[in-house]
Amino acid sequence: MSLLHSKTKEQKRLAPDFSLLGTDGKNYSLADFSDKKWLAVIFTCNHCPYAVASRPTIIQLAEEYPDIWFVCISSNDVNYVPEDGYEYMQQLSKEKNFSFPYLYDEDQSVAKAYDAQCTPDNYLFKRNGEAFELFFHGRFNDNWQNPQRVTEKNFEENIIKLLAWDAPIDKRAPSMGCSIKWK
């Protein structure tokens, strides 16, 4: 496990569209969220220690902020990490009772379109006309290993700003985690 940080993204960037299979057997695209004002897109996986540590935070935030539609995407090469395969994703989604779609990016095209680098790699978008515009891209918090010692909840602080239609908090702390396992 080597730590990798995400690339900083410019605000005003639009969310690339996708068509991906969810663990519930349905295909999802941005059009499925056309009635939503806000969208959280999180690149994650089953095995990475950073992704595992962030999972309770994702589940909690999705429950606490129902106005934001959460979508998790796994893009890892299953030849490199078999436990990140679709069947294992289905098991995890069911076991953890995910209230949000967990999508499989088998060909990694969506991760590339978003320029995702690591797991987790976290994005918040707000509706701008027919598109979703990037509001925040960065880490969940400042202490992934010890939730009791978190002093900066970067993702949640920006969720609060987003829901208030306020400007994002300009702390460009990048997402951090294991690298996406590319084919």
Describe this structure in words.
The protein has about 180 residues and is α+β, with helices and mostly antiparallel strands. The protein has one domain (about 5-10, about 50-180): Glutaredoxin, CATH 3.40.30.10. Helices cover about 25% and strands about 25% of the residues. The chain has four helices and ten strands. It has helices at about 50-65, 85-95, 110-115, 155-165; strands at about 5, 20, 25-30, 40-45, 70-75, 100-105, 120, 120-130, 130-135, 175-180. The protein has a seven-stranded mixed sheet, with helices on one face. It has a three-stranded antiparallel sheet with strand order 1-10-7. The two termini are about 20 Å apart. The mean pLDDT is about 90.
What's the quick description here?
By secondary structure, this protein is of the alpha+beta class. The protein has 4 helices and 10 strands; from the N terminus they run ββββαβαβαβββαβ.
Poorly predicted ranges (pLDDT <50, ≥5 residues)? Answer: none
CATH level-3 fold name: Glutaredoxin
Task: Give the second-level CATH assignment, the architecture.
Answer: 3-Layer(aba) Sandwich
The CATH class is identified as Alpha Beta
From the spread of the alpha carbons, the general shape counts as: globular
Major sheet strand order: 3-2-6-5-4-8-9
Q: Helix-strand pattern, N to C?
A: EEEEHEHEHEEEHE
Q: How much helix, percentage-wise, in residues?
A: 10-25%
Please indicate the count of domains.
Answer: 1
Main pleated sheet:
7 strands, mixed
**Would you report the number of β strands?**
10
**N/C terminus separation:** 18 Å
What Rg is obtained from the alpha carbons, in whole angstroms? 15 Å
β content, as a range?
Answer: 15-25%
- What's the CATH H-level homologous superfamily? Glutaredoxin
Mean pLDDT: 91
Structural class: alpha+beta
Tally of contiguous helical segments:
4
